[in-house]
Amino acid sequence: MKKKYRILKWVLIVFTGLLILIVSFALWFKGLLPPRDTAIETSLVENLPYVSENIQPFRGKILAVVTSTNTMGSSGKSTGYELTELARAYYVFQANGFEVDIASPLGGKPPVVIDDEDMGAYDFAFLNDTLAQYKTSHTIPIQDVVAEQYKAVFFVGGKGAMFDFPENKSIQALVRNYYQSDKVIGAVCHGPAALVNVTLDSSHALLENKTVSGFTNEEELLLIPEADAIFPFLLEDKLIAQGARFNQGAMYLEKISHDGNLVTGQNPWSVWAVAETMIEQLGHKPKFREITDEENAVRILNTYDTHGSKKAKALITVMTHEPKVPINRVLIAKHSIIAAMKGDVGRFFDIIGLVSFVKKMGA
Residue ranges of the domains in the chain? Predict the structure, then answer.
């Protein structure tokens, strides 16, 4: 009996010690992150110099298309279009002289996904933009879109797009028309689901021999392990099956593909580059834009992936000397969590080290 009590005592001591270590680490980890900047929640378009200053001449209209689906199949999981993917592209187009209309398969007010942790000044400005909110609440039914009115189309991501983009005949007709008319087609994250069943007048699949990017199997299955059972297909698999050359970058970091008049991006962190590449494909030099803290964090993570911690810290050192640039520590910290989810302990501690170094350098 005494032996059992001694064993129980040591189990409790070990458990308590581990609990203390976990709580201490969590508090230390939280201390690496900056306090939430609630001021950005009141961002207004007129306070964004990129949009409100140096107004460009009117150059035409671009159509953005979002999903109407609010549930992932029969799973009961909610979905919709990703607000950040629409908002950022919307303001790139607007800042470069293009008016943006918004359409969806069903029209009206589609479901939206708002991830508070990913929201920045442009995203909150979009929520506070009366005209933008009117357009998102009164989207044009895709079957009523007058294709001739637009110079380009941009398919916004969101997991709902996997359900109502691929089989939509109006979307297929619009994409076929634009591709064969050499108009610009952009899509990001799950948005390329709009391209998978498009057949050209030549009877070839649009995607045949095209270099494209989209949400990867690895990205999908890490967050939703049962994705292959929930979705009608995994996007990467379907793009490849349709003959595409799938251009994959690092998980949850910027990656785009530009193949003629087709511009595609891997995930939400690719939106800025996709939208500005579309502007270039339309024949215009993109307007100067201050790089966001999130983009700077992505650059650091890409440098780490390519060249290791030493080079990443050297880049941070450059970024934090005058003139300083903003760095999103939260995004870098998220990638340490992703590493932990994948069981990559070395990467986890490396990235934690980068977060700590950014804080130390005052960014």
Answer: 1-31, 41-281, 292-363
Whether 205 and 195 have beta carbons less than 8 Å apart is answered as no
Contact 71, 79 (CB under 8 A): yes
CA atoms within 13 A on the CB side of 66: 31
Residue pair 211/257 in contact by the 8 Å Cβ criterion: yes
Instruction: Give residue 325's region: left, alpha or beta (phi > 0; psi -120 to 50).
Output: beta
Q: Write the burial class of residue 102 (CB in 10 Å: 0-12 exposed, 13-18 middle, 19+ buried).
A: buried
**What count of other Cβ atoms lies within 10 Å of the Cβ of residue 155?**
29
Which residues make Cβ contacts (< 8 Å) with residue 63, sequence separation at least 6? 100, 101, 102, 103, 145, 149, 150, 152, 153, 154
Cα within 13 Å of Cα(289), Cβ side: 23
Calpha distance 351→309 (Å, rounded): 8
d(CA 90, CA 274): 12
In CATH, what is the architecture of 41-281?
Answer: 3-Layer(aba) Sandwich (3.40)
Per residue of the chain (363 residues), give pLDDT as tens.
Answer: 555 566 655 555 555 544 454 444 454 455 655 766 766 889 999 999 999 999 999 999 999 999 999 999 989 999 999 999 999 999 999 999 999 999 999 999 999 999 888 899 999 999 999 999 999 999 999 999 999 999 999 999 999 999 999 999 999 999 999 999 999 999 999 999 999 999 999 999 999 999 999 999 999 999 999 999 999 999 999 999 999 999 999 999 999 999 999 999 999 999 999 999 999 999 999 999 999 999 999 999 999 999 999 999 999 999 999 889 999 999 999 999 999 999 999 999 999 999 999 999 986
Cα angle 238, 243, 249 (rounded to 5 degrees) comes to 70
Question: In 10 A of CB 218, how many CB atoms?
Answer: 13
Please give the angle made by the CA atoms of 87, 88 and 94, to the nearest 5 degrees. Answer: 90
